[in-house]
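Worked Example 4.2. Read the sequence first, then its structure tokens.
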Amino acid sequence: MSAPRVVTEVLGGGPLSRAAQDGQAPEEWYRGRPRGATEWKAYAERVRSEFATSRWLQGLRPAFDASGPALERLERVANANGIVVTTGQQPGLFGGPLYTLVKALSALALADRLERETGIPTAAVFWAATDDADFAEASWTAVAEDGGVRRLAIPRKGQDGLVMAEMPLPDTREVFDALTAAAGSAPHGEFLAAAREAYGSDTTVGAAYVKFLRTLLEPHGIPVLDAWHPATRAAARPTLVQALRRATVVDEALALRIVAIERAGFRAQVARVPKLSLVFRGMAGVKERVPIAQATEVADRADTVLSANVLLRPIVERRILPTVAYVAGPGEIAYFAQVGAVAEALGVSVPLAVPRWSATVVEPNIDRRLGRLGMVLDDIRTPHDAERRLGDRAIPSDIRASLDGIREDIARRMGALRDASAAQQELVPERVIEGARHQLLHRIDRLERRLRAASRARQVEAVQDLAAVRAALMPDGQRQERRLNPVPMLARHGDLLLAQLKAGAAMHAGTLVGA
């Protein structure tokens, strides 16, 4: 069976994210990334020294609930006072889009590279943000069908505001059937079986996400930490209490950083909400931001369930795990400019964010269709370009030659008319002749578009190929990794695809560690 082709992409993102990736953002907004093995080792030694007497795994073991290669590597690293590379994502249906898997493999590749280059035992950890309450994001995924993109979604079963760890999972049989249909005659049914097992029982949205990710990632040595597990909440509580006690200072620091970001011509990724702290309190699984005016009172209540907002989460993670780097997507890189200000206000270490790898998977059947179209991946990125190329190719050469000849005749004869009018002391103003020329050319352009559309409509196979290619590579006009679920691809290609993804992530890790 032919292996899929994996194309490395530029990560992209907004202006602030791109500036940070290029090293053009102000230095005081971000922790600088080490360059070369020597700098990475020195930085990693500082991180591990903070945990020299810590038994961090002992407290978090129930929240990992790891097994197999993931547990073995985690224990080896913890016993040797090693370090971890982390990444994470909020829940998504059937594991969410492809970039969830790409982030996890990026973290693993960086952990492997750091361990090899520095000699310090290193593990990758995936932080499953089951404390997130965004059901709209967690309730859907998308798959490519031949000629289109299908959105798979589940209805809400619990009340609004519940964290995903508490949100009941509704019946998923219909969406699972659609996921299976999208996989086609897949030889690697174990991936579909894992999705069915995780999402087929009486559980919660968050628990299903964690179970599926553990099945997918643990064999590769990547443990999954459940953010809403009582063990994680207990480990995070001291940092959250500190953030409440210093809520006013944190808010002022955040406000100043946002002003600095905006004055530099960027937009802050996370909006500041006046009078609210960065800590949530939970009541029966429903989260609400703690008002700054009540922060001290809430901090004194030992029975209140606390959790972090997005700007505080990387700091919590850095406090409870010996995290040497967080592998971040473009939006995360942007908001780490604000995370740094929060960390400094709390007097704790500023977390380091590094960009994840980015990729598009071109499956063999899609490659064949691209070949039949005479196109490459870049040809379909810009809206309408591929259609125009298809239309250009469809118009018979004699019709195209006739259109070009008409345009040349119009240009020549209108030029002659202009010159003749000028010789007769400008019988009509030149602008009138130019206006007529533009009108004639405009009508020829309209005629050409109609001819192109009619010719393209006759190319039934080419139109079908283009629709399938678009659905697979630029679904809904977006990058594949941000839209499509990887389970059907994994079911079709199994270890061949995983090997390709790991190889690409390893190349990227080399650029992060290299001088």
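Now turn to a second chain, presented in exactly the same format:
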Amino acid sequence: MNNPNAAAGIPPLFRQFLEIEQCIASGRLTQASQQVDALLRQSPGLVPALLFKAELELAAGRNASARQRVGQALAGRLDSPRTAIHLLRVLASLSESSTMLEVVAQLPPPMWDSAKSLAEVAQELSVVGAYEAAREFAEAAVARDPNHPPSLYILATVELFYGRLDRAAELCQRCLRWVPEDPGTHWLLSRLRQPDPGPRIDRIRKLLDRGPDVHAEYWLAYALHNELHDLGDFEAAWEALERGCRAKRSTLAYDPKAADALFDALLRWTREEVERDDGFAGTDLRPVFVIGLHRSGTTLTEQILAGHPEVAAGGETYDIRAQLRRASGLHYPGELDRRVVEVRDRLPYAKIGEAYLRGMAWRARGKGIVTDKLPSNYFNVGFIARAIPEARFIHLNRDPVAVGLSSLRTLFSHACPYSYDQQEFIAHYRNYQRLMDHWRRLLPDRLLDVQYDDLVRDPEATATRIARFVGLEFHPSMLEVGRKREAVATASSVMMRDGIRRDRGSVWKAYARQLQPIIDALGS
């Protein structure tokens, strides 16, 4: 705060909140914790302080104590939009989507103070897959201020999920009129298949030539790759992709040796463990987990299965991870932590299953079967199988070269840290193969392998096989993928509006020379 007169006008308590936020943002967690503890000694029920404490507990890996603080905050008073958004952000970190929806149901869009607040609510709802509510808040944000860039951006993102590509593009262009250098908006626009890419390419190249920071660099490099790829300039597109991959990889704390150790630990699951009768049974809701490597066809499979009148698409959820964090008391990034695997014999599987199914109820929308399409739940198959005896797994298999290229070409948020380097992808793929072979041996009747090529070559036969595996008969609506208007919030969101495409398996051939490491290691 450079202006002392301005600082003097800020209430002391609010100034303390700002200082705590700055400490957390800059990594000075001990200092932040000391200030929060002092506030809580003075006012034990102060909701903003409780939420800061929860954030600090999560940063320290303590899930149980963070949840305790959030529970106390929920019993208190939300004194401002800032506090309400803080609560939603912490709940999103805990994957508590049902509670988030309960909160926003009591605070509909007209009750919020600004476009900024509405856009922030929309963003947090989008994080947990509550896209209908996110769209409502994003629309309200743009209505409140048609020139507010964050509002335009989040609404463009949600419109993309719903397949309204021209509207999303128009919102992106409006956003860039106000923030012409915003890298995320350039990247989002590059995904929308808009005509006349020349001016967009020139604009992105000029921004890259300025030497942006590493985060802006990978957004812009991926945007440039997308535009050049769609144009058919594959040599230049690969150069841009390599730049984007290098920049993104430099920001990640991915440890291949730790990944190897996690896979090794998972291979110690036994059939006796996964078949032990201590899970949660007796529910009317049956989950189907669609798993496989990212970019292997899991989105298409979910859309086909959810085309059945008795099936709801749950989308990509981190609800299983949330329950494993809760049961173990540990908070960790990524899909799974080896410490959880090591204490698996002490976990309360019935509670895990019951809490998971209760949290998925709103996604099921009254239907008897709900999908959970987080591809990387292949890490969690043992936990899921034991906690939910009714759970079934559909595993997608696709040519590793096609998956490798598609993974390289996808700018993930936090998933797939191995996907920006061909050698790291190869190592991960081999570990993944070992693990899937293990799950097949342990769960031969609960896991169905589906070949992506079969799915696109003969979708009716493959859809029939999938339906019967989950106890249903084929329904013609399963093949109406391109006509659906539900949100599809994955890297395949644009392609899903094309229906079932048969031309995606050969995309890698345009980059065959550059993909030689993957081809040599994994090609047939």
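Notes for the reader: The first helix runs from residue 4 to 8. The longest strand covers residues 286-291.
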